[in-house]
Amino acid sequence: MERLKDKIAIITGAARGMGESHAREFVAHGAKVILTDLSEDAGRALAEELGENAFFIKHDVTKPEEWVKVVEQAEQKFGPVNVMVNNAGVLGPIAQTANLKEEDYLKVCTINQHAVFFGMKYVIPSMLKAGKGSIVNISSIAGIVANYGFPNLAYVASKFAVRGMTKATAIEYGSKNIRVNSVHPGFINTPMMVEATNEDGGDALVQIPLGRLAEAKEVSNLVVFLASDEASYITGTEHVIDAGMTAQ
Fold first, then answer.
1. Does any domain span residue 57?
2. Which of 30, 36, 70, 115 is the most buried (most CB within 10 A)?
3. By residue range, what is the domain housing residue 149?
4. What pLDDT, in 10s, does the model give residues 151-161?
């Protein structure tokens, strides 16, 4: 079923992990997708595999001038953008606050928080041309609770910020038929998660009521829903997908 027919989407961090999964599911559901990432070889290979409805652009999400070019190229390739998935992000160093280097804090917040602002800022004019839009900002359970298993102030700060920015922008643009929601995954079986927790999640599994890591596609199913017209009355909300971790 083409749940995303007539959707033109930008997905950041799309070369691997959750971003790759989102891109695959979007194309499978009928969307035309601009994939962006700094990993050029992997991104181009994925776009080629996905076919004519996928197009890759090398993109540093922390640079506003590159956002301008991405939106321009998206419009030239497929038309005005009506879906934005701000997926690119980093975990950053696991460190207690007093030991966290200033430059590491600023780097994490620039990628995870400021880039989401840039994405919304530069895609909204395109959505206004389209007459409607759906922005899906990927946050984390670290944007719901501060204690999720690791001491990581920068990550928590950036993901709480994304949650608030989502709500503020949803209120501003609801009358323009632009919906903005945040997604808050728990522990997902992606390269970033495996690198952070060593191999298969380790002690993280003890904290998960369902007893397993999620597969990226399980998050993608939620993102597809929020991007689709099935979610036409949903905006300004956080959507937790964490196997019950934050219920404890």
1. yes
2. 36
3. 8-188+215-240
4. 899 999 999 99
